[in-house]
Amino acid sequence: MGRKSCFLLASFISMIGFVVLYFSKTATHLIIFESIEGVLFACQITICIMIITEYSSPRYRGIFLTMKSASLMWGVWVSNAIGTYFHWSNIAVVGCVTTAYIIITTLNWPESPYWLATRGRLNECRVAHHWLKGNSEESEKELQNLIERQTDLSRDEENDQENLKTLCTVIKRNTFYKPMLLSMLILTLYNSLGKMACTVYAIDIIQQFTGSESRAYTIMLVLDGVTIVGVYVGCAISRYARRRSFLIITSGFGIMFLYILSLFLYLVSSGIVENNVHMSLLLLLCYTVTVSGGPMIMSTSLVSELMPLSNRNMFAFLIGTFSNFAFATFIKIAPFLFTSYGFAATFFIYASTALCCLILIFIYLPETKDKTLLEIEQLHTNNEPKSNKQSELRKE
Predict the structure, then answer these.
(1) What is the model's pTM?
(2) Is the pLDDT of residue 19 over 90?
């Protein structure tokens, strides 16, 4: 269908979901709404990142991807604020207005130059590429390499469909399974850091610290605001910092604060130290800032940049499925861990899982900052020689 049409379809489905939410009267209606909005949630890690990586230039791609992650937390904060101070159906009103704006603006987009090139519509590809990225020398070189590479890819994919008809051969390619495994590691790292679990169960966690439900709602909104600030600080830093280093450093600090929080809660539960609400909230605040400013925004950015140009739809489908599975797993097991082992042990388990992922990422993840999608794909190719043009682009 193309990127634009697919995104429009998802937006219309999302609009239907928000209308259902607004008129919901029973739990069944809410389940129907959640099922419909599942399409939009899945788009976050599939079509959305494909659009951002293909529509933006390498120089600004990172900042756009991090801002996309920031917009997700804005939605969480606004929804929590509405649910705290107003009737929850107003969330649907905000959703409808936002989706209407998205639909109107999307109608004015061109189609993705990458998709057009793969379909052999080269004139439309040139027009769309110039509309999006201008006519600079750097843009023209990227367009030339794009047309050459995507034309070859379209032939390769046609041969795959005619001769192989299986997923196994595609998965065995370096340019497919290497970024797939790295992307799975990055997403597992992010989910195992527990930020979304802490967001979903914020009231229960904060109430455990403070012993007051009313204070828990206020502190939750404060932490949501801190998360947004941390995300935008991370966006600013990521504009200049190297992707790999930034992810590793911020994830390391996030894991450290998780371990410290786990140790503190263990000492409190054992009666070794006295419970200090301010200390607990301070550690939770430091953890929130480090995770929201780094892994939360960098995970989506790196996964989208690692996504190969060949078999891109298949990659998006598989990584999107894994992402939602990992998200659901860590969210659903959190209440069981809290109840069975306590908050201290749960934070320790999450931190240890994240540490294992971080070690593997430190060993295997390449740097992707300011590289074109073609150059990033070459990083995973052991046998394919780099062309002179690509070498010149990398030097520049």
Answers:
(1) 0.75
(2) yes
